[in-house]
Amino acid sequence: MELLVLVSFCILTFTGKSFGDETGHVKIKTDQDVTLPCYFGKTLLDKRINWKKDGKDIFLYENGQVKPSSQNGQCKVRVSHFKDELKSGNASITIKQAKVSDSGTYICLFYEQGRSLPSGRVEIKLTVDPVNITVDVYEDVILPCSFNTSFTDKSFDWKKDGKDVFFFENGKFKHLSQDEQFKGRVSHFLDELKCGNASITIKQVNLSDSGTYTCLYIDGKEEGPRQINLTVEYILKDRSGGKINGAFAKPSAFRLHINGEGALLRCEVLGASPEPTVVWYDSDGNNVSDREPEVSEEGDLYHIILETKVTKTDNYTCVATQNELYHQSNKTTSVNIRGHVKIKTDQDVTLPCYFGRTLLDKRINWKKDGKDIFLYENGQVKPSSQNRQCKVRVSHFKDELKSGNASITIKQAKVSDSGTYICLFYERGRILPSGRVEIKLTVDKTPIIIKEDESVILPCSFNTSLTDNRFDWKKDGKEVFLFENGKFKPSSQDEQFKGRVSHFPDELKCGNASITIKQVKMSDSGTYTCLYLDGKEEGPRQMNLTVEHILKDRSGGKINGNGLLIGGLIGGIIVIGVLTAAVAFLLYKRRRNRNSSGKQDDKTNGANHPLTNDPMRMN
């Protein structure tokens, strides 16, 4: 039994592999197109790619083509891939006109040919938020809904919290099924049915009309339902009938500070009357407020600020309630406590930073180790403030500033980019930041593993021509390859690498600083650094090289892995057999000595036995 366990352990040691899961979270609004990212570091043209959601196939690529028959009916015709990018390892998919029902956990798998177990896995959570519409009480509102079909002879249905709002079937509105709450107040767009327009208008909305509305295309299984959140707000009026501006509560939610331990959230309700009750809730409906609100008055209006600290990743909602007005309003913000991003060298990375307000007129400042790497102010980027290493490699999401996205992307990240990044935003004229997000970035060195006596290419490239520039390769302080003034400088090269290192002269003009090391040795293992000496804007490239030893027989031939494994097993069996024989011999010898000792004791005891020495017995 012990031998079987030993053999099993050896087999796992020789053949076992592990794959780390990659996870992410994507949030969008209903009817937007969304791309679920999935990348693997090899060509996928001859691989099998399988996307699943809740155990169901939504996309399968195999034998060079998509298998539409395997797709879930709701996702068929709405899911596409990046055909031209499969060769570069891009297994991402795009879902068109995403619906709330598309929310869930998606898993991207790829399989090597002939393998039943996946060779790579990426997990992504998708949240599709419903459309939010806010309208004043007694006004008319249009709830938009459209599908890729003509409705002149098809059916669609609008519901709210289980109530029938509007049912269209066989070219007619079915008023008999309509709930009493909506009778006489809902109409559709008759002339636009042929264009797929299933929108409706609700006249003179009431507070009770607030809620979640669902528009369903009954004859179309391929297209999921549309959802809309309608909020009807109460308006106070003075004695003359004029509106009192700012009387109803409108909360705003912000993330003031995020790190690996927690996040500080702030909810602001300004200009409300009467005074509202303000509470923070998590996604399960638990009250997570940990302190009393700050309340100030300005005439008849109230300003409330409620801060709370949270310690887990979740969606948090600030709810403001005015019971006297039968009014409730809320604002939700998401928190990602993890705050740690890990990537490989030379990958592009996005450092996420979101605030719950427009940032077009704000100042945004990203810092790393006390140095500015990005500054946005007065509607434009200030490149002069950036750290030289990050200049030209850092970009932001210009079109998303209005929605509170202060994230940045670092192109071709280097090991030297690792560290703690802080994202700050400032209100105009403020010295202290109004919001702060902290993210840890780890850029791992690129690992390269190769067998002894083989040749290896160490990749390195820069965004410039190197024909008249300098670059230098080093390993643990030793000079590997120095290129200067258009020539390789052999005089500075360490003896260990002489005659074994070459570069790519025809590709220098394209910025290729890669080198080839011939007939690698065990001593070549270590960390290699490629440095562009004339470019401070571009940091060094680093990679780890591991040279594996190859056993050889007496003739100098390589011993393959199977021979090594079989030899190891035979050797193990021999060792175990010898140990077993040795243990058996020791046990036998010990038992023999014990028997000999017993017989000697019997003789000694017999000489002194009372019956034997009795004189009467002798006669």
Offer a concise description of the structure.
This protein has three helices and 43 strands. It has 619 residues and is mainly β.
Structure description:
The protein has 619 residues and is mainly beta. Helices cover 11% and strands 39% of the residues. It is built from three helices and 43 strands. Helix 1 runs antiparallel to helix 2. The longest helix has 47 residues, at 561-607. It is globular, with a radius of gyration of 37 Å.
CATH topology grouping of the largest domain: Immunoglobulin-like
Number of DSSP strand runs: 43
Write down the overall mean pLDDT.
79
CATH architectural designation of the largest domain? Sandwich
Our Rg estimate from Cα atoms comes to 37 Å
CATH class of the largest domain: Mainly Beta
Report strand %. 35-45%
**Low-confidence blocks of residues:** 1-22, 603-619
Tell me the major beta sheet.
10 strands, mixed
Q: Kindly give the count of domains.
A: 5
Can you give the helix content as a percent range? 10-25%
The total count of helices amounts to: 3
Please give the oligomerization state of what you see.
Answer: single chain
Structural class: mainly beta
* Straight-line N-to-C gap: 65 Å
Q: Provide the CATH superfamily of the largest domain.
A: Immunoglobulins
Which geometry do the CA atoms define? globular
Defining traits:
Immunoglobulin-like; mainly beta; six-stranded mixed β-sheet; disordered N terminus; 5 domains; 3 helices; about 625 residues; about 40% strand; ten-stranded mixed β-sheet; globular; about 10% helix
